[in-house]
Amino acid sequence: MDIYRLLRINNRIKNHRVKFLALYFLHIFKRRYLAINLDPVLACNLRCKMCYFTDKDYVKKLKGIFKNGDLDKVANRIFKRALKLQIGCGTEPTLYKDLPYLVSLGKKFNIPYISLTTNANLLNDQKIEELLSAGLNEFTISLHGVTKSSYEDFMEKGNYDTFVKVFNSFAKFKKKYDFKVRINYTFNQNNFFELTDLFKYFNGESFDILQIRPIKSMGNTTYQNLDLTPIENTYPKVLSEIKSLCIKNKISLLAPETVSKSNNELYSTSGLIYNYTFCYISPKHFWRDDFDWENESFEKYTKRINWSKNLLSNVFKKADQINADRKSLNYDIDIN
Fold first, then answer.
1. Secondary structure (3-state) at 233
2. I want to staple 209 with a disulfide (CB 3.0 to 4.6 A). Which of 151, 182, 219, 309 is the partner?
3. Using alpha carbons only, what angle is made at residue 114 by residues 93 and 218, rounded to the nearest 5 degrees?
4. Which residues touch 31 (CB under 8 Å, ≥6 apart)?
5. Across the chain, where does the E strand assignment appear?
6. Can you spell out the DSSP letters for 73-97?
7. What is the pTM (predicted TM-score) of this model?
8. Phi-psi sector, 193: left (phi>0), alpha (psi -120 to 50), beta
């Protein structure tokens, strides 16, 4: 399954009525449409300056880990409705010792696409191959600096040489396994322009997708310069250069066309369906507060709250009448 083509189609459909009607039929015919984002452990080995893990008060509250038995129960409750399983949604999943088991559990329930978001510093050849053998479809790698000095400055406790070595391993394993590697690059006014040198430091054969996304406030983080106006005027020119490099290296690019557009999420149709497709699970949280996942399945829960009726009613509502988080894709997708 090509998840990125589905995202592009979803982003191009501007009519929310069409989307809710599609969700209604997917639901009543028991098809997959959920994007499950799961944090198996609430911890991180790095202290990236733009991340809430540099907020000491936040880290004190963020503790918890799943046991295998609990993951089995989670899977039984909701995995058969998952279109995608994203392992790692704000913490570092490679700290979880039974990670290959979680991937294999997703494949047991025939989830079409399983992705792992990681800073890659704890990966090595053995761990990469164990995950690929278990059925992992994609590594999504966090990167906040292209050069060694920038990388180790923004990603405190991270090791640049280890990071580069992992990408060399990806290039090697791509000859044996069918999987994708996606780089998620969070930019600010200090690390943006070095993006044009990305392919000087990283082999284009080691990854498939590049996502560049603007910095956003994540609380009391070490780095607090959220001002992007110094790069706003030059952004289109630099983006054009990055696009050309991605085309040359056959890399798919996910990026906002302008810096201002990246923050304009108010009435996106993608945002309107967010609460009906995005499912976050962690040792402390299971999607919705009124979902008693210990004792009921997704089917029983949605039947109890008249989920299908709610989906159908949204077909006939105006966008501003729908109670939803107005979050959206903050990028356009160029597929090469």
1. coil
2. 182
3. 45
4. 25
5. 34-38, 47-48, 82-87, 113-118, 138-143, 155-156, 180-187, 209-214, 252-255, 278-282, 285-286, 332-334
6. HHHHHHGGGEEEEEE-SSS-GGGST
7. 0.91
8. alpha
